[in-house]
Amino acid sequence: MAFVDEAKIKVIAGDGGNGSASFHHEPYKPKGGPDGGDGGDGGSVILRADRSVGTLLNLSDHPYIKAGPGVNGERSRRYGARGKERVVLVPPGTVVYDEDDVLIADLAGEGNEMIAAQGGRGGKGNVHFATPTRRAPAFAQKGEPGEERRLRLELRLLADVGLVGFPNAGKSTLVSRISAAKPKIAAYPFTTLVPNLGVVKRGEKSFVVADIPGLVEGASEGKGLGDRFLRHVRRAAVLVFLIDLAAEDRDPLNDVEVLRRELVAFDPELGERPSLILASKVDVDPGRLDDVLKRHPEARAISAVTGEGIDIFLEIVSKLVDKARADAPPAVGYVRHVVKEDPVRVVREDEAWRVYGKRAERAIAVTDFENEEAIERLQRRLVAMGVERLLGAAGAEEGDEVRISEVNFNFQPEEQP
Predict the structure, then answer these.
(1) What angle do CA 157, 165, 299 make, to 5 degrees?
(2) Nearest-angstrom CA–CA distance, 80 and 286
(3) What single DSSP character describes residue 139?
(4) Which domains, from first to last, does the chain contain?
(5) pLDDT digits (tens, 9 = 90+) for 24-81
(6) Is the distance from CB of 189 to CB of 247 less than 8 angstroms?
(7) Which of 151, 161, 180, 275 could covalently link to 239 via disulfide, CB atoms 3.0 to 4.6 Å apart?
(8) Which residues have C-beta within 8 Å of that of residue 226, sequence separation ≥ 6?
């Protein structure tokens, strides 16, 4: 399966079902009264983190996601069924951005979920609109449209250990040596085009190692492939800096300083992460190891090919992982709930007046414009919201065109007493 760590999707929730405008009919009771049931709420689109999914490939291939609509209400106060929800599974570690590129959710742990698009509310049946002065309302509400949103999803791998190094430093080879993972390996730059994950078992314990590809000097500014994959380092509890003793195009003594600088430039918190320096390919050029140890006495040497130093490395990194797990709080999902004030406002639009505001727009959406009683009720609601007052204050005159959502009508202010 291809590894995909970004996806842009459009989520469409189900519309609410229409309310019923029926009347009770029974022999010898010609005026049984209204008995229209409510429409069912539309289904919502839900994103849920699940370990059974390891990539965003499916969403990348199928970016349009729609939930089911609510069922219309029926006579005898029968309520319509709720629309079927659409639950979309994503890998733990998925973060969600809205159209303005604002982070709205971090589905870090198993089972974390967010409502990506809220289903529309079902319309009320005419039974709700009966009053002592209006005993036979012949109208009902239409269902509210479901929410539509465009979202950008980004996967940040959940790994205990992040292997960080220049291309060809031996990260993929090391992952294949210490785990069952079989990454593609070749002797040219940027062999690894996707992060590789390997599960390392040490007795009864295990931890996950991620090979972070594409890091070069300037990666935090977009050079090479590093800016695309640096985000995966954020989830790693322990960082391992791999120094390539066999490198011919650069001085390996500078590798750690350069890599640390790139990580801190990308996210300053990474500079405080527990880390280990590992000198790889000691079997190719053991003479360089002494120079590395002079600058980095705490470094360890390995050969992923011969196995030299692997056991010591795993013992050390296993202890670092245990400590990092003990010190770190469990991954907690984050969903941002933003309640925006949305007062009704009026602006000039071409030769007409445009009314903005969710309350006014919702009142339009649930009104049956083929029913005069429903239109009269809408007018009273708009007056109560202050729409008429705002139009008058803005300079609207009788007969002017007014636009709310997709509906146009002429301004007819109520007569003043």
Answers:
(1) 110
(2) 76
(3) -
(4) 1-156+331-338 (2.70.210.12), 161-327 (3.40.50.300), 345-410 (3.30.300.350)
(5) 877 766 667 888 899 999 999 999 998 888 778 888 889 999 999 999 999 888 999 9
(6) no
(7) 275
(8) 214, 215, 216, 218, 219, 220, 262
